[in-house]
Amino acid sequence: MNHTSFQLDTSIIFQDTFYFFEIKNFEGDYCYRADRFETINGKVIMNPLDQIKRSHTLLLQLLQKLGYHIAVDASVVFVSPEFFLYQAPKDKPIYYPNHLNRLMRRLNNESSKLSEWHKSLADKLISLHQVESAYSNVKIPTYDYKVLRKGNTCCICHSFSCSVCNGKVICADCGHVEGVESAVLRCVEEIRLLFPGMKMTTNGVFEWFGISDSKKMIRRILNQNFNSIGERKLRYFE
Ligand SMILES: [Zn+2]
């Protein structure tokens, strides 16, 4: 709309109302202060209410332009039971995990007769769906295997401060614990994404993973998850 794009995570068309929901997977403790969302340490984060406000306006403009007159109801839904918001505002369109059952019931009980008009609206919106993300225009910097920092990063906070202990990878920064196999497989995915032409070898994954002193363990995980091709020094995995 107006040469700018907006995203609707989930939308449901009812007879008189177009609902859309901004879905957030936030985990942990947050605080609502002076119309802002902050982490418990006071770091200001993107305010989901601002996001839906923007999407709401753009959607209304789009519907108007397309000639569809229907009320729009936008809300933010926090889905993780691990999420908690201190000083949560009462008067904002937000659903918390404890509300989800009630929200479902309410939507299920809302009577709604849909016509061809609604279907044509849905079809129209689907036809305007953009698969390409805003990121596709971003120029990726050139990079070289040799100069990149090696080492597993935490799957939650992306810290390099991870170590292996008893088959688990432990992050020293956020405390997250991940099975070593899952961490090694994430490394394999990274190598595949960053270096599509590179052969997947035990040595390569060992070096990229960087926090294990056991090549045997890396080889075992690769053997269990991929087909090995070739013998000994020339062996690689696909
Ligand atoms: Zn972490």
Explain what you see:
This protein is an alpha/beta fold and 238 residues long. The protein folds into 2 domains: 118 residues, no CATH class; 93 residues, no CATH class. The protein is built from 6 helices and 13 strands. α5 crosses α6. The two termini are 43 Å apart. The structure holds zinc ion. The site of zinc ion has 8 residues, from loops.
Keywords:
238 residues; alpha/beta; 2 domains; 4-stranded mixed β-sheet; elongated; binds zinc ion
Bound molecules: zinc ion
The gyration radius over C-alpha positions equals 24 Å
What is the molecular shape? elongated
Query: Into which percent range does the helicity of residues fall?
Result: 25-40%
Query: Major β-sheet, in short?
Result: 4 strands, mixed
Number of domains: 2
Average pLDDT level = 91
Uncertain spans: none
Placed side by side, the strands forming the largest sheet appear as 1-2-6-8
Please give a quick description of this structure.
With 238 residues, the chain is an alpha/beta fold. The protein has helices at 48-66, 100-109, 116-127, 180-194, 202-209, 215-225; strands at residues 10-13, 17-24, 28-33, 36-39, 44-45, 71-78, 83-86, 94-95, 162-165, 168-171, 177-179, 228-229, 236-237. The protein is elongated and about 70 Å long.
